[in-house]
Amino acid sequence: MPSSRASPPSRLVLPALDALAGPVLVVDEARKVAALSPALETALGGTLRAGTPLARVLVPGDGVEPLETLLTEGREASAHLRVGGRSKAVRVRALSLSQGPRSSGWVLLVAPEPATGPVRRAELFHGLWTQSPELQRVFRIVEKVARTESSVLVRGESGTGKEHIAHALHALSTRTRGPFRAINCAALPPNLLESELFGHVRGAFTGAVRDSPGHFRLADKGSLFLDEVAEMPLELQAKMLRVLETRSVIPVGGRQPVPVDVRILAATHRPLRREVEAGRFRADLMYRLRVVPLFLPALRERRGDILPLALRFLEELHQRGTRRVERFSPGARKRLEEHPWPGNVRELRNVMEYAFVIGEGPVVHEADLPPEFSEARASRAPATPAASRDVSLEPGRVEAALAQAGGNRSEAARLLGVSRVTLWRRLRDLNAAAKR
389-430, what's its fold? Predict the structure, then answer.
């Protein structure tokens, strides 16, 4: 009798196991097959009869490691599952089913062995982890350009790791013993941004009760990171250009230039060329800042990193808490892999912290994910024709809303009266059009 149809309860329980844990093989206390789930039947292209000795169908590794070790130690291991004269490479982990002090059997969690071929090597680079060849190529460029004094402009969406790259450029440079300073150009009003960058003298404005050196002077002999540099006001861009040309700053309210020795590293989520064409950014300053451009791929463009990164974040959370998460349910895995990740790696980290706090046990389930995951699925609808698009999503209005919200996309979406997902899609379309 086919094991997956052994009894009416099995027809309910086994599909439920599929949904919770993926393909499973149930083994009784005598080390014989009791049942297998529908998903495992499909994956194997066949079934197993109840009562078949497990040793006849499952061979751990290359047959060197004892089957008993796989059952008793509970760790994941490579194995071969033999069905209908065929052998399939799988990864297996055994969970003991206990009744009191004795074991009543095991549930074997079965996953396909990763495909053979070129193995993607993971790399941790100054706080950025990836298996993506595209991002690893960026790392190699960083290593080369760090040894120079060239200005670098890092392009990438919010949460892709632009500041990590800036730190790497500084750490790998000859300026590593000097200071590293960072300032977000979108976070301050123009008058305050000028004072923060160039400093001010006592009495320069109301509240200036003492001299302030400013970021340029504080970064002397080191590196200054200008995040969201495209948000810098035009009048301040002219002063920035003068600083780069003369290698000196004049504090607000001061008269005498002060020499500075600083390497500029800048970042933006907007294409500076488009900002120049729109008259919002000076072309001469762009050429000064954009000597070496670097482009960081979004998380959705390196989907192979999503689940490994998520598990790394969960392991970090385990170090601070008591829960240990070992895997995702099939439903949660599907939602994570399909999510557009508008907030990139930063958003993924936050989602994992939410799931870690809300859920229980070793498995992250779909219900443990934040509300927007179920809302996004429920609100999917056919794309709106370009001709009937809401005027609130015109490029100028989108950029104005982002500027007003200080780069916060949730707040910008609220100001525009659209969902965050809708705003993300519009930004994706605008970014693709800018690259053409």
Answer: Arc Repressor Mutant, subunit A (1.10.10)
